[in-house]
Amino acid sequence: MVNLTIDGIKVSVPEGSTILQAASEVGIKIPTLCFHPDQSIKANCRVCVCEVEGNRLLQAACAMPVFEGMVVKTRTPKVLEARKTILELILSNHPQDCLNCIRNGNCELQDLAQEYCIRENPFEYKVRGFAKDFSTPALFRDQDKCILCRRCIEACSVVQSVNALGLEGRGYNSMVVPTLGKALIDSPCVMCGQCIHACPVGAIGEREQIDEFLAAVANPDKVVITQIAPAVRVAIAEEIGMMTGEMPMGTFVQGLRQIGFDYVLHTNFSADLTILEEGNELLKRLKEGGTLPMFTSCSPGWINFCETFYPDLLDNLSTCKSPQQMFGALAKTYWAEKMGIDPSKIYSVSIMPCVAKKFEAARPEMNDSGYQDVDLVLTTREIGRLFRMSGLDFSKLPASDFDSWMGKYTGAAVIFGASGGVMEAALRTVYEVVTGKTLEDVNFAATRGITGIKEAAVDLDGTVVKVAIANGLANARKLMEQVRAGESPYHFIEIMACPGGCIGGGGQPITKANVKRVERIEAIYAEDEGLPLRKSHDNPEVKTLYEEFLHEPLGHKSHELLHTHYHPKNKKFL
Amino acid sequence: MDYKEIIARYDGKVGGIIEAYHALLREFSYLPEEAIAEAARVFKLSTAEAYGIATFYSMFSVEARGKNVVRICESAPCHVAGAADVVAALERELGIKMGESTADGKFALEFTECVGQCQATPVITINGKPYLDVSPAQIPAIIAEYK
Ligand code: SF4
Ligand code: SF4
Ligand code: SF4
Ligand code: FES
Ligand code: FES
């Protein structure tokens, strides 16, 4: 341990700690911008400067390691003056656009401008004037707001191994640009949205579609229905000032009715359905010598990644559409018929933790119902905004239940929201289908948690099935390299593009650190634990769907509506 | 020579990408996108990183530009010594503005920072060769060497 004094308070911290870490131990907050708790130290913004006795120059607290006997002062006049100047310099070319900004109220720069009472800026105000990038249907970039912290670059390269973002130029003229300075759509970007979480300001965000939703609600000819992905409920609470996982499902459903949905249904229904289709697909591949290992296909960022970087492995992907798209195809066929609603009147909105889902819904092949299967994708953050706009007090709102047909679900569907959940759900079903026995303990501990790569082996009456799970695309890449080299020992691989799985998706409440992802994972398993049904094949509405409509997993109708195929992206520059 | 062959010559060298970029510039006078992507592959970087290197150093260019790159120093000592008049003479002689290339693809006109010849200001360089103590009157003759 190293002993030091910060602002007159003695503290001892492990060797190698930084001033920033030591200060937080004793409740002293030092402002930061380029610092990110899960990333490497960048020390490029200098807003965290402090005085260290014996040093003439101010030191960056995020980078400076502590030493024995160190004396640090974090708020001398000199320090405050320096921080203020740094902020003023940043703000001198930063658009004064807070009122219109997607990060208004949740911006690290805005917070600091407020905390440091920046009123009049002595420096000349000149915005750089870049064009905004709206080239992808999932996210936008607004370079004028970029403060060059480089956190997005690290998210995209180190966490995701996509490398769609990099620096261009240097000094005053440097900026963060997609590959070769092109539009984002021409870079290898897979639209995972992890750069949105990494960004301290409003320089990257989702393509907000709130107005499209409000227009549909206002249109008397439209029946506006929604499906909610499992990861959304645990996180939506954070958007309205509640604790993670605290929003009861019934209250959430009521809130959705209040903002204008005519029918509230659940993606969990089609998640259970996915398990039946995908589980049977796996068994078929195992039995008939199909392409193995089979990869899960629910994460559209991962599908984009596979189509971009591993087009040679597309046959390994399960042909199952994602739960969102299965739901979409059924809503305008099966559900419409059952409800006696003209499918052309249905406006199908999905609420997703994901920005890549916006891209997935817009894929031209996603129209097997005869219409665009999913009309609009709203992220958890956008629903949060609609809730705030609606003025609802969720502590008083009476609960409501899901509508029928495609509203029921099991715990197996709930855990789709966390990395390892699809695998665990599949194992719960595959085990019972293959062995004919009842699975007494449905919990598979080895598949759970935020660890980048997890593996497990399951004995299905003598046949050992080896599985692996990766979350975050840099981890996925490791498994893919093994497969490409012909050295993969696995039969079944689950991949989620986002760290922690969908609970850490690019459309979730801005997630500044992985500890938040862990909290959400816990909330997911707690929800599963509390449900009466926890195996997908026990879902009564899914059973009815097969009896009345699909007849059997992988049958003719399933192939028509629930399965798809993939296309190499052929990106020119990776 | 093909850009792939040029880059391959520096494969495995420490800092090879910088040398490869210099060699590419001698051949093409700028760094084409395909060459940056190939350099990324050879030196095991992402294209985004290789592009970052290509745009970091002012002597590299990622835009197509004239074959003979005429650069004029704009750092303080040259500035004081009358660089502005030399700029005007260059622009007049070549019929283009700073930052542009001639229509025949022969000349590009750029600024540079101090090239370390401050004892003999103003300074211009053409394809890296310095010309010291330049006066506006000398410009037509200097340019003629490259026509
Ligand atoms: S990025 Fe932050 S500081 Fe900049 S306009 Fe948006 S809210 Fe304001
Ligand atoms: S969305 Fe994902 S892949 Fe695209 S730039 Fe951001 S982090 Fe990279
Ligand atoms: S876009 Fe955001 S995360 Fe990326 S460098 Fe700019 S401010 Fe930082
Ligand atoms: S937070 Fe320390 S230098 Fe940016
Ligand atoms: S200032 Fe021009 S060469 Fe040094």
UniProtKB/TrEMBL annotation, chain B:
An example Gene Ontology molecular-function term: oxidoreductase activity
Cofactor(s) essential for the protein: [2Fe-2S] cluster
Keyword terms of this UniProt record: 2Fe-2S, Iron, Iron-sulfur, Metal-binding
Residues given in the record as [2Fe-2S] cluster binding sites: C73, C78, C114, C118
Signal peptide from the UniProt entry: none
Recorded superkingdom: Bacteria
Alphabetical list of Pfam families matching this protein: 2Fe-2S_thioredx
Cofactor binding description: Binds 1 [2Fe-2S] cluster.
Family designation: Belongs to the complex I 24 kDa subunit family.
PANTHER family linked: BIFURCATING [FEFE] HYDROGENASE GAMMA SUBUNIT, NADH-QUINONE OXIDOREDUCTASE, E SUBUNIT
Name of this chain's protein: NAD(P)H-dependent oxidoreductase subunit E
Annotated organism of origin: Syntrophomonas wolfei
Lineage: Bacteria, Bacillati, Bacillota, Clostridia, Eubacteriales
